[in-house]
Amino acid sequence: MDIRTIVSGVFLFTGCFFMFVASIGIIRFPDFYSRIHPAGKGDTMGQAMVLIGLMIYEGFSFVSLKLLIIVIFILIANPTATHALANAAYVAGLKPWKKGDKR
Amino acid sequence: MFDVAAIIIVLAAALVLYRAIRGPMVCDRVLAVNVIGTKTVVLLALIGFIYKRPYFLDIALVYALINFIATIAFLKYREMGRLD
Questions:
Q1: Percent of chain A surpassing pLDDT 70
Q2: Model ipTM over 0.90
Q3: What is the number of alpha carbons within 13 Å of residue B82 lying toward its C-beta?
Q4: pLDDT mean over A14-21
Q5: Please, which residues 1-60 of chain B have a Cβ atom closer than 8 Å to chain A?
Q6: Are the C-beta atoms of B43 and B10 separated by less than 8 Å?
Q7: Looking at chain A from residue 25 to 64, which residues have their Cβ under 8 Å from any Cβ of chain B?
Q8: Average pLDDT in the B56-63 region?
Q9: Which positions ≥6 away from B84 have C-beta within 8 Å?
């Protein structure tokens, strides 16, 4: 068990923690505008950390280049999709949640 | 190591499925499907490492592209009422 496996395992399980916490946030937050907050940040961070852990495990090769391309694409695309979702909900006329409203 | 991480990610996707079924608006369902798609990309990469087949990374890349395009296309259709 060398040092590279340990470092990649730390990255992998930190990313899994972030993705799991993002799912719990999507279930528990009260309205739509606060629900896109874990989806835009927690999920993007989690996938980047899991795939960086796989890159460290693999080493310097063509496979890790493909993983880097996936990481960069999702880092650009996932916040863009979340922004488009918020824009669509705002155009449709959804009001933000205030304290005391029904969940 | 990889299989434990894959099981955790499948459990997280199953949690998000609750929001996709129950979500009060259409936007909630689209959000849940987008998040499940991101988790599926990570799961495909992990499956490629579990079975030692690196071809799964190409499928993961194509799935990421399809996920983004599907979300943007559905929102554009919902916002404007047409797709041209």
A1: 97
A2: no
A3: 1
A4: 90
A5: 1-2, 5, 8-9, 11-13, 15-16, 18-19, 25, 27-28, 30-32, 34-35, 38-39, 41-42, 45-46, 49, 54, 57-58, 60
A6: yes
A7: 26-27, 32, 35-36, 39, 43-44, 46-47, 50-51, 54, 57-58, 63
A8: 89
A9: none
3-state SS of A29-57?
Answer: CCCHHHHHHHHHHHHHHHHHHHHHHHHHH
Q: Nearest-CA distance from A101 to chain B in Å?
A: 15
Interhelix angle A43-58/A3-28, nearest 10 degrees? 160
Is residue A51 scored above 70 in pLDDT? yes
Domain range for B63 is 2-80
* Nearest alpha carbon to residue B54 among A66, A8, A5: A66
Average pLDDT over residues B9-34: 86
What is the pTM assigned to this prediction? 0.86
Element (H, E) at A85: helix A62-92
CA distance A12 to A25: 20
Domain ranges of chain A: 3-91
Residue A103: band (very low, low, confident or very high) from pLDDT cuts 50, 70, 90: low
Residue A36: name the closest of A71, A81, A70, A76 by CA.
Answer: A81
Number of domains observed in the structure of chain B: 1
